[in-house]
Design brief:
Length: about 350
């Protein structure tokens, strides 16, 4: 076995000193000078290469702002095409696809991905998380791979940071991806993983934490609490800034919450009603259901017992308008705008603002 400090059993010698020279003394010579000049050139080249690599790998490390977009329930029809074209023109640096992609057989994944790439660009960060109609997620992940430096299981449970400005966490609660069941129940591994990712972001001084997923808990649409109350309670308790969901084919923007109860409305849970479109950062999360990228709409039920948690909504029977939400993030403010792309005239906008900036 090769010993430490040896090359093929022969001790490596890194010195220009003649064998007879005393230890600790440098003996100059022509050969030594040439070698030192060569070493300087090599080190210089390595420094430049390292700097270039640093730019590539860090990229947005010192970013002061970023624009991104998000929605779920994409489909494959004319409304999907309109939303893809609008996304390409939106100026969003990346897009969060909140599940339910083509709504077709997973064998059509390559065709659907080609359609996406033709609209937004072959290398555009179209970041995926699984929905309940995405049984062939790996096929979609292969043709729309992660381009944001994700950590974890891309498409199911992962996160990435946009420099020190923003942490995005994407999860697939109440879904099985591959052979793994993703359940976020207190005391279980996935719950612990999510807790740690949120805490790590706060400890690192990252001001904004956004958690995206497909399924919902509270809603005034058709869907019930499928992600589980433990997960919603965790996100509220940790006061993540924004919870992004799809699944209900509607748009719903919540009030700012310190608690929530399925199948009932408790007014004391509301810390900011969002009527003026402005929320105070750190007071509680805002939940956005945006499941109207291109698939047919679900009805909005204004008499739903959970309707009191929401400030704005759109869906079947309520000006149904396909589109997505565009977010602009700076250190002091997160601003959002619903970008309508076809079908109706609905619009919405809101901001979450640092306390000193209100």
């Amino acid at each position: 076995m090769t010993k430490p400090g040896t090359i093929n059993g022969t001790h490596a010698v890194h010195s220009d000193r003649p064998r007879s020279a005393p230890r600790g003394r440098i003996v100059d010579g022509a050969a030594g000078a040439r070698r030192r000049r060569l070493a300087g050139v090599v080190l210089g080249a390595l420094f430049v290469a390292s700097a270039l690599c640093s730019v590539v790998t860090r990229g947005h490390a010192d970013a002061t702002s970023v624009t991104f977009a998000a929605a779920g329930d994409h489909g494959s029809g004319a409304a999907t095409t309109a939303s893809l074209h609008a996304l390409a023109a939106s100026g969003a640096t990346f897009y969060l696809a909140l599940g339910d992609l083509s709504y077709e057989s997973d064998r059509t994944a390559k065709e659907w991905c080609s359609r996406v790439r033709a609209s937004v660009g072959a290398s555009y960060p179209f970041e995926l998380v699984a929905g309940n109609h995405d049984a062939g997620l790996d096929n979609f992940a292969a043709c729309l791979p992660d381009r944001m430096g994700a950590h974890g299981r891309y498409g199911a449970e992962y996160y990435f940071d946009y420099g020190t400005l923003l942490r995005v966490i994407m999860i697939a609660p109440d879904l099985t991806v591959g052979a793994e069941s993703y359940r976020y129940v207190q005391g279980k591994p996935h719950y612990a993983w999510l807790t740690q990712r949120i805490d790590d972001a706060r400890a690192a001084g990252i001001p904004w934490v956004v958690v995206g997923m497909h399924k919902v808990c509270i809603s005034m649409g058709e869907k019930k609490c499928e992600i589980g109350v433990d997960l919603l309670n965790l996100l509220i308790a940790k006061r993540v800034d924004l919870i992004l969901e799809g699944h209900d084919h509607t748009y719903q923007r919540s009030k700012q919450l310190t608690c929530a109860f399925k199948n009932s409305f408790v007014n004391s849970c509301v810390v900011g009603d969002g009527s003026d479109g402005t929320y105070t950062k750190g007071a509680g999360p805002v939940l956005v259901i945006a499941g109207a990228f291109g698939q047919s709409f679900h009805e909005i039920n204004t008499r739903d017992p959970e309707a009191g948690y929401f400030a704005r909504w759109m869906g079947g029977g309520a000006n149904p308008t396909y589109g997505f939400v565009k977010y602009v993030v700076t250190r002091e403010r997160l601003s959002a705008q619903y970008v309508g792309t076809s079908g109706g005239t609905f619009t919405d906008s809101f901001s979450i603002v640092s306390p000193g900036q209100r």
